[in-house]
Amino acid sequence: MSKVITAYKDAPVSTVTAGGVTYSYRELGQKGGIPVVFLVHLAATMDNWDPRVIDPIAEKHHVITFSNRGVGATTGNVPGTIEEMAEDAATFIKALGYEKVDLFGFSLGGMIAQALVVKYPELVRKLVLAGTGPAGGKGIDKVARVTYYDVLRATLTRQDPKEFLFFNRNAAGKPAARAFIQRLNERTANRDAPIKTNAFQTQLKAIKKWGRSEPANLGAISQPTLIANGDNDRMVPSRLSDDMHLRIPGSELVIYPDSGHGGIFQYHQEFVPVALEFLGR
Asked: Rounded to two decimals, what is the model's pTM?
């Protein structure tokens, strides 16, 4: 019997082709049962998942991460809308042969998860929505402005933009940011190619469209939903987490103090047990 891999840094890279796109993905944890499919954030590749979140979840669940179309080693061009990205995610899940999955969406990934569950409710058992907001959410269309500003700040100080975008620039946030960036570099072999500039810009435009689109009927979401964020999210305003909580029936909300967009990474020790209890229920 082959050893079950539960460390994300060791997860092998696989591919599956569907709808003319070859998706690059990684799997870890014990197979069998409902897998947890992770949907990644703006500009991210598979290497952007925090191993302190992935690894403990993989100890209890079958975990799958993948790169969206046109990102990393996945072929094709980045779609221009969140809805098309959700279509791709559904295609990928079905190509792996799954009829039901749990979705864990962070930021852009949380938007994709919402679009997917609204269109394919039968495909989703549970939802975790972190650092994200609903279609038509006030302030989401400002993401590009905040992002470009922080990318510039990071470039001038030779730091990773995520240190500015995901964390508060204070005594709690700065060390949490550095620790997070270090964890992202734990994997040394078979890393994903970084996102290309035009792919990143296409994703930003899709997020802007999402922010300016008609609000979706989140009341139709019957799946158990866990919503999480920091209390000071500059990218996707924290109040939108409250908004989703009010609109998704029976949803649960956790907001972490003195933290930003990456609140679940800053508070991974507190968040992971909550996520595991929710997924295992």
From this structure: 0.98
